[in-house]
Design a protein that fits this description.
Layout: H1 2-15, E1 27-33, E2 40-46, E3 49-55, E4 60-66, E5 70-74, E6 80-86, E7 95-97, E8 120-125, E9 132-139, E10 147-153, E11 159-164, E12 169-173, H2 175-182, E13 194-195, E14 204-206
Parallel strand pairs: 1-7, 8-14
Antiparallel strand pairs: 1-4, 2-3, 2-5, 5-6, 8-11, 9-10, 9-12, 12-13
């Protein structure tokens, strides 16, 4: 009887799920600091994660990315224009920097990318009496990820123009939504600020 019980316990121990799976790369938490000396846009792409985002000069942000994720230069949040770094398991808890000596190649293009001339150009404006920082996150139809742009809108007449295809979902993201996107998840199930229509061309939308 004792022998059968021992065998049963051994089988249960071997059948116990292990932490992590082969198909699910581990995520690590680290800080990313923009040490390039100027504001610019980046693109992260890895297992189950792809999005563009901007960082101000000397800005530091927390990241929780899968091991193997790659950080690229980008001009549009979708197309990479040069590899900056690759995240490894040893980067856990560290502060990674964007000035790694990598060189951007602006000639790199996404062959299937749509031209901005076919998109709808509109603007968002700040009607308030104080400057307003906005995080504009967009999901274009058929795109694998999102693009992110951070803008500081001056008071009263401050505005910024954007060009996106019809059907693009636009979000003026709050801190919680920004954190969700930075963790590699999506927010396009939330109610958008705007869904681009052909009739939006030339319009200006106030930030509430």
């Amino acid at each position: 009887m004792k022998i059968y019980l021992l065998v049963f316990l051994l089988i249960c121990t071997e059948a116990k799920p292990q932490s992590g799976t082969i198909n699910t790369p581990a995520r690590i938490t680290f800080m990313l600091r923009n040490t390039l000396g100027y504001h610019r846009m980046f693109l992260v792409e890895g297992p189950g994660i792809k999005y563009g985002f901007t960082m101000s000069r000397r800005e530091t942000i927390p990241c929780n990315w899968p091991v193997g994720s790659k950080l690229y230069f980008t001009q549009d949040g979708e197309t990479s224009t040069g590899l900056i770094l690759t995240v490894t398991a040893n980067d856990e808890g560290k502060t990674l920097v964007t000035d790694t000596g990598a060189v951007e190649d602006r000639r790199m293009k996404n062959v299937g990318a749509s031209s901005s001339s076919t998109g709808i150009t509109f603007s968002i404006r700040n009607p308030g009496v104080l400057p307003r920082k906005v995080a504009v996150i967009s999901y274009e139809p058929g795109a694998a990820g999102n693009s992110t742009s951070i803008a500081i809108l001056p008071p009263l007449v401050g505005c910024k123009s954007f060009t996106f295809p019809v059907g693009t979902k636009i979000y003026l993201a709050d801190d919680a939504q920004v954190n969700t996107v930075m963790s590699g998840k999506r927010i396009d199930a939330d109610k958008p600020f705007l869904v681009i229509k052909a009739t939006d061309s030339g319009k200006s939308f106030p930030v509430k």
